[in-house]
Amino acid sequence: MTLVQLEYLVAVDTHRHFATAADHCFITQPTLSMQLQKLEEELGVQVFDRSRVPVRPTEIGKDIIAQARIVLAESKKIQEIVQNQKQELSGELRIGVIPTLAPYLIPLFIMGFLEKNPNVKVVVQELMTSEIVEKLNHELLDVGLLVTPLENKSIKELPLFYEAFVSYINPSHPLAQQQHISASQLDLSELWVLNEGHCFRSQVLNICNRGGRAASEQGGHLDYKSGSLETLKRIVETQHGLTLLPELSVLELPEEKLKMVHQFEEPQPLREVSLVVHRSFLKKKLIEALKQEIIASIPENIRSRKKEQVITVG
User: Fold this and answer.
1) Which whole-number Å values give the CA distances from 5 to 30, 67, 141, in the listed order?
2) Which of 21, 49, 84 is the last residue of a domain?
3) Based on the domain organization, do 25 and 153 belong to the same domain?
4) CA distances (Å), origin 202, targets 88, 142, 198
5) Which end of the chain is more exposed for a tag (fewer CB within 10 A), N or C?
6) Phi and psi torsions of 264, nearest 5°
7) pLDDT in the model for residue 140
């Protein structure tokens, strides 16, 4: 049994396709298949059920693959020990970010991080929370930026800051005359929300405490299923009603649109934004540098909030 064979094993489990796994490992499919067959003969068990499409691990194969991932992660820590002795950080950092954070948070820190770490290549993907967790578990991402807690035992959470929710209200709406509003004043029938599947939608419904009434139950005949906070802003600006937004999404609004932003009464509803990694994560020094750069880029009023102030999360 070799580390190379274990890498091929994990690649097939990740991609669920022998040809794709071979491409990922930069070898031919026959070479990969031969090495896995040798490994199965040595172990005396079948790791993959090749009769299924896509290929799936057998029951015992699942346990073997899980242990293979641990072995490979531990072996890579030797390289990390050496890398940590060097003054300059280098390598590739793959980041997954949820859509309600990406356009507002990434621009705050990314250029500063790259300037300080010129030998690091950063790859960013906008993904839903479930996709980020899955890719972390399959080592297709190094770190995620999302809202916690996740309550997932395979994931380690590194809290960064606590972001307030604000309301964005059409000037013709009665609540637009108030400087601050309370959650009890929100009427979900007038509230524009994101599609199901977005964690931000669940957070908004949690604030409203009204259960999951769909956007199609809003007044009038428009049933608009949006996956974008920017689209929700435009609907509120040009049509009617209101929506809830994360605080970072309104930092750069022009003066005339800032008048549509209304804070909640204290205690404000907040969400916890964290870096998340797999429990056996690597690139610790690189991820710590990323964490410090993000925290430094956040406005002081957001950075200074404490966890005890959070009253609603995902």
Assistant:
1) 13, 13, 22
2) 84
3) no
4) 41, 26, 7
5) N
6) -85, 155
7) 85
* Domain membership of residue 7 as a residue range: 3-84
Residue 83: the pLDDT is: 67
**Structural domain contains residue 116:** yes
* Sign of torsion over alpha carbons 66, 67, 68, 72: positive
Mean pLDDT, 10 residues at a time, over the chain (314 residues)?
90 89 90 91 89 87 88 78 69 92 94 93 93 89 92 91 92 89 82 77 72 42 67 88 92 90 89 90 86 96 80 50
| Residue whose tokens read 């993904």 | 127
Rounded to 5 degrees, φ, ψ at 190 are: -105, 5
Number of domains in the chain: 3
Residue 314, in any domain of the structure: no
Residues 46 and 19 in one domain: yes
This model's pTM is above 0.85: no
pLDDT at 215: 40
For residue 263, give the H/E element and its range.
strand 261-264
Q: What is the pLDDT of residue 86?
A: 65
Residue located via tokens 């070898």 = 27
For residue 90, the model assigns a pLDDT of 82
Same domain, 186 and 278: no
DSSP of 167-180: EEE-TTSGGGG-SE
Burial class (CB in 10 A: 0-12, 13-18, 19+), 88: exposed
Say if residues 305 and 162 touch (Cβ distance below 8 Å). yes
| Antiparallel, parallel or unpaired: β 143-148 and 91-97 | parallel
